[in-house]
Design a protein that fits this description.
Blueprint (H helix, E strand, L loop, with lengths): L1 H18 L15 H7 L4 E3 L3 E7 L5 E3 L5 E10 L4 E11 L8 E5 L7 E4 L4 E10 L12 E2 L1 E8 L4 E7 L4 E4 L1 E3 L2 E3 L8 E12 L4 E4 L4 E8 L6 E7 L5 E7 L4 E7 L8 E2 L3 E3 L3
Parallel strand pairs: 3-12
Antiparallel strand pairs: 1-11, 2-4, 4-8, 5-6, 5-10, 7-8, 9-12, 10-11, 13-15, 14-15, 15-16, 15-19, 17-18, 17-20, 20-21, 20-22
């Protein structure tokens, strides 16, 4: 499978790079195995010694929102501890049901540089940051990839101890970007007359590289009176064919209308640019 092959190629390459130490540098080589060796050889879940992973933060704790063309850079910060100190730690993201199955992985975000950029917290603890990229033109290739992803991570102590896991818990999801519009008319309008507020809710389709209507979704219509600082909810509207939104309200005072979508497990929230109404 393509994604599984990517992971296999990654670990295979790292294993070879770990062995490719020029003879002239042999005496200067690390006395403990480097991280690449563990990635290639360790099981998905493995503990040797007293190294511990205490925290992982993906994308600063925020969902990874991907549109149809722009790449998104994602930081994965791994905090680990060992009495001897931390030599290195790294991580990548994967999507699927079973890391150890040939058909269990259908998506991955793997770093170009596997070793983490480590900063010591104290003598025993470090936070190591790895960078991956979500690219709708390559690794975010299907809508089935929207939702929760898993973290594969490994940390190595300076004494050679290590710990690895293929399913470190995280609340971060990869979500389809959404767009939302609002248009209130007529403008101007007489007090007491009907205002029609239209709009459209669309979201990124990673398989066509276009935005398409998001139907049957609850979208709030909000209003802010001229001079006020906050919006209040007027009503909730369901998106129809091609994500279309349409409702009516009675004109009372000058102000701004806007549609607001709270998002779902697969699609990011979005707030439309407001549209002003002049009531005469």
């Amino acid at each position: 499978m393509r994604i599984r092959a990517t992971v296999a190629a990654l670990t295979g390459t790292l294993a070879l790079s770990a062995l490719a130490v020029p003879a002239a540098q042999a005496d200067d080589a690390p006395k403990t195995p480097n991280l690449s060796t563990f990635i290639a050889d360790a099981p998905a879940d493995s503990v040797e010694g007293d190294t511990k992973i205490t925290k992982i933060t993906v994308n600063g704790g925020k969902d990874i929102v991907v549109g149809t063309s722009a790449k998104k850079t994602v930081k994965i910060a791994v905090t680990a501890t060992d009495p001897s100190g931390i030599e290195d730690a790294t991580a990548f993201l994967w999507h699927g049901t079973d890391f150890d199955s040939d058909t269990g992985i259908d998506g991955s975000m793997v770093p170009d540089v596997m070793e983490g950029d480590c900063t010591a917290v104290d003598a025993t603890t470090s936070t190591c940051t790895t960078t991956v990229v979500a690219d709708p033109m390559s690794n975010i290739y299907s809508n089935i990839l929207a939702g929760k992803w898993k973290v594969w991570t490994i940390a190595q102590g300076k004494d050679g101890d290590h710990v690895s896991t293929d399913s470190y818990p995280t609340n971060v999801s990869v979500k389809r970007a959404a767009k939302l519009t609002t248009n209130a008319s007529p403008e101007p309008v007489k007090k007491g007359k009907t205002i029609t507020v239209t709009g459209a809710l669309t979201r990124a389709n990673w398989e066509t590289a276009e935005y398409a209507g998001y139907t049957s979704q609850s979208v709030k219509l909000e209003f802010k009176k001229k001079g006020a600082s906050t919006y209040s909810t007027v009503k909730t509207v369901k998106s129809g064919s091609k994500g279309a939104l349409k409702t009516t309200v009675t004109a009372s005072v000058d102000g701004n209308y806007r549609y607001v979508f709270a998002g779902t497990s697969t699609t990011a929230p979005v707030t439309a640019t407001s549209d002003a109404i002049d009531v005469q």
